[in-house]
Amino acid sequence: MIREDVPGLVRWEIQMHEPCSRVWICKAHGRTITAVEPTALGQAVLAAYLTSRPAPYGETFRVFLRTSTGSHLHVTTDQLPESGGTTDPALREALPGYLRGALTTSDGPRHVSGLT
Known about the structure:
Blueprint: E1 9-18, E2 23-33, H1 38-52, E3 60-67, E4 72-76, H2 89-94, H3 97-100, E5 104-105, E6 108-109
């Protein structure tokens, strides 16, 4: 079990907005211990999730992150940078397997818009 006060611990929730009820529904969650900037981690989590599961028409997704220092932040699809690139190996390593696999193909790292 991971203690909540471990330096570098980042917890996240991938959330989908339900427009009829106007609530955010948790679709997936995870945590990691990393030195990667939380915003960059959130962008990679969201990009990987959307790469593996394209959003149907009209669905809105975001990632809600909590750090061990007590700070909170949201990363939305609007915050994904528009320039192309591949994800940093250290950033991919911080992701769980199901998200890491979404950013990797058999030919090497997959190109994901906004991640360098």
